[in-house]
Amino acid sequence: METSQRVHFFEIMWFKNDHDIINKGHQMYLIPLYRSEKIHFEGKQGCVLAFKREYLEEDDKEFALDVFRLFNLHGQYTSLHLDDDSIETLQYLNILIEKEYQNPMGSYLVIKSLLKVFLLNLIRASQHGFLNQDIHQKRVYQFIMLMDEHYKKERRAEFYASKMGISEKRINQILKEKMNKTLTQLLHERVVVEADRMLISGELTIKEIAFDLNFEDPAYFSRFYKKQTGSSPEEFKKLNACL
Question: Which tens digits make up the pLDDT trace of 133-143?
Answer without folding.
Answer: 467 777 887 88
